[in-house]
Amino acid sequence: MAWHARGIEHHSQGVENCLSVINLCTATGHIGKPGAGYGTITGQGNGQGGREHGQKSDLLPGGRSIMNEEHRRQICEIWGIEESELPPAGTSMMEMVWQMQRREIRGLIGICNNPFVSLPNYRVVKEGYDTTEFHAQFDFFLSETAANAHVVFPVTTWAEDEGVMANAEARVVKHNKAQDPPPGVRTDTWVICELARRLGAGDKFDFPDSRSVFDELRIASAGTVNDYYGITYERLEETGGIAWPCPATDHPGTPRLFEDGKTYHPDGRIHLQTVDWHPPMDPYDDEHPMSLTTGRTVAHFLSGNQTRRLGALVEQTPRPWAEIHPSHGFRNGEPVRVVTRRGSEVFPALVTEAIRPDTVFVPYHWPVPTAANALTIDALDPRSKIPEYKVCACRIEHAERIDEVPARRSPPAMSPTRRPRSPEPTRCLPRPRRAVAPRRGAEARDGQND
Predict the structure, then answer these.
(1) What CATH fold (topology level) applies to the domain 44-243?
(2) Backbone CA torsion sign across 69, 73, 74, 79
(3) I need a labelling partner for 446 at 20 to 30 A (CA). Which of 18, 196, 332, 419 fits?
(4) Which of 186, 226, 232, 231 is nearest to 209 (CA)?
(5) Closest by Cα among 79, 284, 49 to 166
């Protein structure tokens, strides 16, 4: 059995990396039976479910392709719209930033994302957003990106609404509301439907609650690979979870795929994929002879907008560091400047033999001036459009002082006629960290920058 997280995907040949692992599993017959198979550990709770039902800009519900004429016709019929009203395939998040720079995108709404921390090449990202004429943001905490928006919609956390998610084994589960939201805070569903109503499209967004959204999704997914039709809120409450495909309300679900040896290809056979290798997009030279790679820490989640507010987690991991090999002559805690073609930042050194001499690791959960993604390259895999977070050319240098983690503060009052800007961060001294190298593998390096 093969499992991996985001690490092998965050490359300009990430799709080829994944196909190589799938080739190994299928060529050795490790599919469709217990203790065998291929799986990806997603970066967040509903990473699987969102991608199954149109979260990507080239997909429609049920894993349908927005570029497939028959798939478009099916969804238009379900939604009650003309095919001309359904847009073509969109672009990825990084491509959208480039479109902002070119003024091809003049306004946008972001829903609980924080690209000022999570996208690569921060300078380009900030420039793109600052070029827009209008930027609105949904979030339950004021992220670095939300602080730069014209309008912020305060929305519920997952614990303040009910909903459905799919995990990495394609098991659909229901999460229940744990508490009411604060006054004035609405669900994502309510805000989207209300915006649609005020924009004259309320009849197409008539969803009083999350259950009604899921019921339409059940219909939209019927007959597809990701068939949810037989999955209901009541069944999920009774069973604790049902694996798709589940085409009928009396169907038990499908915990294991391909048990009959047949695949989704028309001929039912396995098709091994040819893959080619190419070097990283950021070339090495005498000025940049090493590799910078980024990823997660145990204490923090994605851009840190939630976890950097929790005292116990901040106490455990208060700031990022540069993980380097002892051969470079640094001591634990000494300032080390990491330099790429996008800029430089200074981190405390964490010296360990768990890393290769030609590689530097920096976790990515913090904003500038301690943002790993101010250094990473905005090169993309040509098929998945995932950025090459996991490798770019760099060098390291001795430095005088460590860049400080910015303190959080409330944004300034926003004028109705003046574009809001990110407040200048106040400075705070970094907490002292223990001069102890982690055990090999103690820190995950598979972060997904969402």
Answers:
(1) Rossmann fold (3.40.50)
(2) positive
(3) 332
(4) 186
(5) 49
> What residues does each domain of the chain span?
44-243
Instruction: Give residue for tokens 């479910």.
Output: 49
**What tens digit of pLDDT does each residue of 403-417 get?**
999 987 554 454 444
**Greatest alpha-carbon span in the chain:** 68
Model pLDDT for residues 133-177, shown as the tens digit of each residue: 999 999 999 999 999 999 999 999 989 999 999 988 889 999 999
Residues in the chain: 450
